[in-house]
Amino acid sequence: MRMKPFFFVAVALLTLGSGAAQAQDDGPRQLGAPPSVPPPAPRRTETPRQLSTPPAADTVRRAAVPAPAPTPTSPTPVYAPTPPGQIPGGSTRAARYQVGLKTGMVYNVYDVEVKNPLFGRSYLLLDGQRRVEFDEVGFYDDETGHYVRTTLPGASRESTLRRDKTGRISLYSITSTQYSPTPYPGRYGSIGYGGFGYGGYPYGGGYRTVKTEYFSKDNGPIQNLTLRNLALATTDNAGAQQLLADARRYQKASLASYAVGGGLLVYGLIQTLRPTDTGTSISPFVFASIPVLIVPIIFQSKQANNQRQAIALYNSAQ
Questions:
Q1: Which is it for strands 223-224 and 158-165: parallel, antiparallel or unpaired?
Q2: How many CB atoms lie within 10 A of CB 161?
Q3: pTM above 0.70, yes or no
Q4: Over 70: is that where the pLDDT of 148 sits?
């Protein structure tokens, strides 16, 4: 029974000791002490990607996804201008011919008509709707060939010439109808019908269809198709010069035949009209003049053939 006080004293001392320790731990912190911070976690360094390293799979997938298509809208109409050389509202068929104006404008058309009204000036009708005056035209094509508008040597007005041959020496011609009341020797290139006339065969007058030819060298000015002009244009070709020299001889022979045949014909007519005791009879000189006057036709044909050969030889040699 005496030990109980001692037991209670020991328990009390133990209780007081634990309370003092707890009060010391829960005491106020010092203001100058820094707060406790947990140490930072180590950073993971990332190795830089090399240029040759392929991109990640997810990047490839994002690049392969196509962009969303734009919302369709109504198309805006575009009105193209009329191409140069095409007639607005003209034929939609493929162009066959060309019509060149002196201004440099060239029309590509399907149809070309030459209009020669009874009153007024001639003109071209393109595709049945556009009218072009001849004064504006430099050249044109149609189903009959190629034509140019130019001023002939010694003329003051323009004429329309058809191109018959193309080359360094190009040939052009004009066909017209002429009336000759008296016989006359025809010039080269003419074919005449009327009376007894053919190609200048001087038996009578009448209407003749005359084809007059011209030429142009290297697209230069139009010149009369004469032996002298051709000889000057072909001085750099010996073969053409020889052919033209032969043509000149045929020309001289033709003129001589006309002179002889015409003389015989005139003398025969005088003899026929002279009265005689036996009555009127046709003089034999009239009959003698007929074959002599036929000879120029042969010479003219040879002359024309030599001229054409000279032109063909000159064009083929260049």
A1: unpaired
A2: 22
A3: no
A4: yes
How much is the average pLDDT of 288-309?
93
Query: With 70 as the cut, is the pLDDT of residue 141 above it?
Result: yes
Q: Which residue has 């976690």 as its token pair?
A: 41
Strand-pairing partners, residue 140, are: 99, 147
| Residue 120 pLDDT exceeds 70 | yes
Q: What is the spatial distance between Cα 48 and Cα 230, in angstroms, rounded to a whole number?
A: 90
**Strand-pair partners of 176:** 210
With contact defined as beta carbons under 8 Å apart, do 128 and 95 qualify? Answer: no
Q: What are the C-alpha distances in Å from 288 to residues 265, 266, 267, 293?
A: 8, 11, 11, 9
Arithmetic mean of pLDDT, 157-173: 94
User: Measured between alpha carbons, how far is 201 from 205 in angstroms, rounded to an integer?
Assistant: 10
**Domain ranges in the chain?**
84-143, 161-225, 234-318
Buried b (16+ CB within 10 A) or exposed e, 74-98: eeeeeeeeeeeeebeebbeeebebe
- pLDDT at position 159 over 60: yes
Cα–Cα distance for residue pair 184/194, rounded to 1 Å: 12
CB 147, CB 162: distance < 8 Å = yes
Q: Which residue has the higher pLDDT, 168 or 21?
A: 168
Exposed / middle / buried, residue 110 (Cβ in 10 Å: 0-12, 13-18, 19+)? middle
Quote the pLDDT of residue 154: 86
Rounded-to-integer distance, Cα 215 and Cα 169, Å: 6
